[in-house]
Amino acid sequence: MADVARVAGVSAQTVSRVSNGHPGVVEATRSRVLEAMTELGYRPNSAARALKSGSFRTIGVILFSLATTGNVRTLEAIATSAAAEGYAITVIPVAAPTQDGVHGAFTRLGELAVDAIILLMEVHLLDVARVSLPPGVQVVVADSDAGESYAVVDTDQADGTRQAVQHLLDLGHETVHHLAGPALSFAAERRTSAWRATLEEAGRDVPPIERGDWSPSSGYEAGLRLAQRGDVTAVFVANDQMALGLVRALHDSGKRVPQDVSVVGFDDLPESSEFLPPLTTVHQDFAEVGRRLVEQVLRQVREGVHETGTRLVPTRLVPRASTAPPPQRT
User: Fold this and answer.
1) Which residue numbers delimit the HTH lacI-type domain (predicted)?
2) Is 68 left (phi over 0), alpha (psi -120 to 50) or beta?
3) CATH number for position 84
4) How much is the pTM?
5) What is the pLDDT of residues 299-310, one digit of tens each?
């Protein structure tokens, strides 16, 4: 800093004011200081400035998997929204969804110095209160049933599922089979519960579920099993990737989509409109989820408050060519 001051012909205090973006510096002086910084290769010490101001302008993100579409797209939205607010993100994947694993992630984020934490909780870890988060840490949670204790932002899983199942019933299907996600996934179980409730409210039979792991291959295996049953005319699939595998399995088994079996997914991946046939699905607004997560956690940081409650982001059904009335029985 002293070298920059000498080359620019100003005081060290003026260099500090320029480094910190202080508005009370004459533009010509600011230009000389910036030119001197460039000439000398000087970069302000952001860590030192953070220690002085008490703000690191960084949000930590803890998540259990980078393999799922929802986590990846939500993380992308968090990064974009944080950058718009002048914040960076630090991502800590947790190998095992255990109390020790989560506490270890909090410890690492504490060492890396972050202002707040967003948890992308894909399993029921917070729901059953097996993890106690460190006191005094501003936290917002995605995909969890922990709204009594934390601020939660989630897609409206239940309403999206209701729209999907009701769409199939309205087409004339007697009931709707379900290919669910992993049993430990909060989103998968919320969709399964809503599927069951919608059928029960309509007075329809509730078939046994098939279960996958979100991957197309697990959807394919489930599709082969469903294709062997003569009573399957409609399937609600918990995500689009499993739906892709299921559609292929139906095709390989001699079943036409949608003439013999209608299929609805959940996510509305960018490529879902390019499936063969284009997939009817439930649209999730991942960008809005990420924006609200960042907005919520930064409000807590700036106002110094701890908020609770669940805020839902609406979903909507996107009808395409993979659904149709059931085949006529002869």
Assistant:
1) 1-53
2) beta
3) 3.40.50.2300
4) 0.79
5) 998 888 888 888
**Structural domain contains residue 318:** no
Examine residue 330 and state whether it is found in any structural domain, yes or no: no
Cα–Cα distance list, 263 to 86, 255, 276, 288 (Å): 42, 12, 11, 26
Token pair for residue 294? Answer: 């960042």
Q: Are both 255 and 304 inside the same structural domain?
A: no
Q: In the block, which residue shows the tokens 């769409």? A: 167
pLDDT tens, position by position, 118-140: 988 755 555 444 455 555 668 89
Cα angle, residue 218 at apex, residues 217 and 220 outer, rounded to 5° = 65
Are residues 190 and 130 part of one domain? Answer: no
**Strands lying side by side in the sheet with 234-237:** 210-211, 177-180, 234-237, 262-267, 280-283, 316-318
Using an 8 Å Cβ cutoff, are 165 and 236 in contact?
yes
DSSP H or E segment with residue 157: helix 157-170
Given a contact cutoff of 8 angstroms between Cβ atoms, the answer to whether 247 and 257 are in contact is: yes
Residues 168 and 275 in one domain: yes
